[in-house]
Amino acid sequence: MKRFLSFTLILTAASVIGCTSMTSEQQGTVSGAAIGAAAGAGIAAIAGGSGWTGAAVGAVAGGVVGNIRGRQQQK
37-69: per-residue pLDDT in tens? Predict the structure, then answer.
């Protein structure tokens, strides 16, 4: 599980750093998905569930919320 969380944190950092040439909507989607994946994996690990499932659900939820927020900032 530690390896999975390390991978998730590295992926989160890389996606946030790589967002410099994207629109606000794209940045929000990628950042939201990465943060959601990390949060979902963490919550699933604490709750005793599957880290991969938690990361997938968190990524989808975070991506949707990030996309909406980015679209609002772009206006």
Answer: 989 988 998 999 888 899 999 999 999 999 999
CB 34 within 8 A of CB 64: no
* Phi, psi of 63, deg, nearest 5: -65, -40
**Sign of the alpha-carbon torsion through 26, 22, 70, 15:** positive
Extents of the domains making up the chain? 25-75
pTM for the complete prediction? 0.71
Please state, in angstroms and rounded to a whole number, the distance separating the CA atoms of residues 43 and 53: 11
